[in-house]
Amino acid sequence: GQQVMQIPQYQHVQEGEDFTTYCNSSTTLSNIQWYKQRPGGHPVFLIQLVKSGEVKKQKRLTFQFGEAKKNSSLHITATQTTDVGTYFCAGQPFYGGATNKLIFGTGTLLAVQP
Amino acid sequence: DADVTQTPRNRITKTGKRIMLECSQTKGHDRMYWYRQDPGLGLRLIYYSFDVKDINKGEISDGYSVSRQAQAKFSLSLESAIPNQTALYFCATSDFVGQERGTFNTGELFFGEGSRLTVL
């Protein structure tokens, strides 16, 4: 079946260090979304990427969508304690026709030590 | 008030019991979803509905059923709960974004606060 894998599963960094999580799909994606879930909270939408090779920035966060639209990454520059949480990617598979499922990755839990 | 409301927030039940989780939304979205979250497995889609007359199975629909009572309400039922259905359940809504090359892009998902279910 369709799979969206994320690595690493867990990352512990010192405050100020950079952080990157990678998302890989077994199938081509129509688009990919990223969500953040704070401990004890619910997932909150961060961004959606649609175009091949697209790069978007939100302050210290940089999102990339691969040229083949099968992988994506989220990079955080100079982490802060407020970045703590689990980051999920979610891809919408594309099979040359309408497909409406959003498949979530397994998530990366980020811990930031002050 | 939250735009997507789930009840109950926490529930402990016994094996074999029937459980209903309810979701209501004030966002006016046609699309509603039920996801299950387990540690290390991310969020897995149980059922989704694109309007009141539309119900679709997700990745893990076995043991679950749903009802879309109105545009704003989407409930998830466990007819006979079992321990491996212990999990955190999320309801979500989205709006239709648009069509690109035959694919209907799913817009941003808005999640409820979650319902933590424990089956003993």
Structure characterization notes:
The complex is a heterodimer of chains A (114) and B (120). Chain A is mainly beta and 114 residues long. Chain A contains no helices and eleven strands. In chain A, strands 2, 4, 5, 9, 10 and 11 form a six-stranded mixed beta sheet that branches. Chain A has a five-stranded antiparallel beta sheet with strand order 1-3-8-7-6, with no helix packed on it. In chain A, strand 4 and strand 5 (44-49) form a beta hairpin. Chain B is mainly β and 120 residues long. Chain B has no helices and 13 strands. Chain B has strands at 4-7, 10-13, 19-25, 31-38, 42-51, 54-57, 65-70, 73-78, 87-94, 96-100, 103-106, 110-111, 115-119. In chain B, strands 2, 4, 5, 6, 9, 12 and 13 form a seven-stranded mixed beta sheet that branches. Chain B has a four-stranded antiparallel beta sheet with strand order 1-3-8-7, with no helix packed on it. Chain B has a two-stranded antiparallel ribbon with strand order 10-11. Chain B is globular and about 45 Å long. The relative contact order of chain B is 0.32. The mean pLDDT of chain B is 91. Classes of the chains: A mainly beta (114), B mainly beta (120). At the A-B interface, strand 4, strand 5, strand 9 and strand 10 of A face strand 5, strand 11 and strand 12 of B.
